C-alpha cells in the first residue's frame, strides 16, 4: 500500500510538471510563477517547488526582472534553457532527406539536408545514410551535456499507428515496418506521415514556445481546429481538433490528395481516378502544363517554370492552373462538409503562388459552402512552412519531456 501511494504521488508530481511546462509553452508573453499559479489553479507553494526542480534539472532558467503585471514588483520571467533539451526531427522526402535538432524555444541548433531527388529510391541506403549522419551529431551534443529526447521520422505516405509505412508511391516504398529499422530504434523516433507532423508544427505551444511564433499574423490559437494540406509531388492532409492531431483509428486519416474530384479523371498511382493529387500535385501540374522535365525539377525549379509561362500568358498553363485550383477547392469543400472544420492551412509547393492565388482559392471554396461554413471560412498559408515536417517531427521528441516528465526528471 505504501509503495502504491508513493507511485501515485510520483505520477501526480510528473503530471503537475507537465502542466507547468505546458503553461509556459502556451503563453505568448513572459510568465512568472504567480502567473502559472493563476492559469493552472495550483498553489504558489506547489509551483515554487516544481519550478525549483526544473531549474535544477536545467529545463528552465530565470530571465532578467520585468514588470509582468500591472501592479506589484518586477518578477523574473521563466524561460526554457536554450539548446539543453533537444528534439530530433528526421524526414525522407521526394527530393531528399535530412534531420534537425530543435529546442523548446523553436531554435534549430543543427540541420543537415541532402538535396537529391534520385537518392531516395533505395530505402535501405537512405535510412542507413541518415543513421550515419545523425549518430556523430547526437554524440557531440550529448558530450556537451545536451539531452536528446527522441523525435519523429516524417515520410510522404500512409503510416499506421504501429509504424508501418503502407505505401509511399512517390518514393516507391511499400509495406515497410519502420519501427523495426535501426534508425527508428536507435534514436527513439515515431514514424508519421509528413502532413501530420507539418500540422503539429503549426500548433502554438505544442512543444515549442508560442511566443516564438508571435510575429506571424495568421498564427492559429491552441484552441483552434484546422485542416492542414501539404502540397508537393503528393498532396497530403491532417486534421487538428482543438490542439490535438486526429490520426484516426489506424493512424492514416487525412489523405485529402486522394479524394476523387472527377470520376472520369486521370488514373492515380493509388488506383483511383480523378484524385485531387492528379491535378494539384507538383509533377502532375507540370506534366499537364507541358513541361518535359517535370520529373527532374525540384519545387523551386518547377515554380519558376510555371511562373515564366504565366508571365507569358500561356493559355495552356492558365487552364491547368485553373483546373488544379478547382480540384483543390472541391476536395477542401468535401472535407469541410465532412469535418465541420472551417480553418484551412495550405503548406508546401502551392505557397509559392502567393496571396493572389490564395484569394482565388478562397473564392472558389467559399462559393460552394453553406452559410454557416462560409461565414467562418479562413484559408491561410502556414506560419511554419520551411521544412515544417522536420520541425514538427522534432516537436514529437520535445513533447516527451512534457508527457513523460517522470521518466526524465524523477528517475533519480
UniProtKB/TrEMBL annotation:
* Signal peptide limits: none
Quote the InterPro entries the UniProt record gives.
ATPase_NBD (IPR043129), ROK (IPR000600), WH-like_DNA-bd_sf (IPR036388), WH_DNA-bd_sf (IPR036390)
Q: Which family does it belong to?
A: Belongs to the ROK (NagC/XylR) family.
Under what name is this protein listed? Answer: NagC family transcriptional regulator
Source organism lineage? Bacteria, Bacillati, Actinomycetota, Actinomycetes, Bifidobacteriales
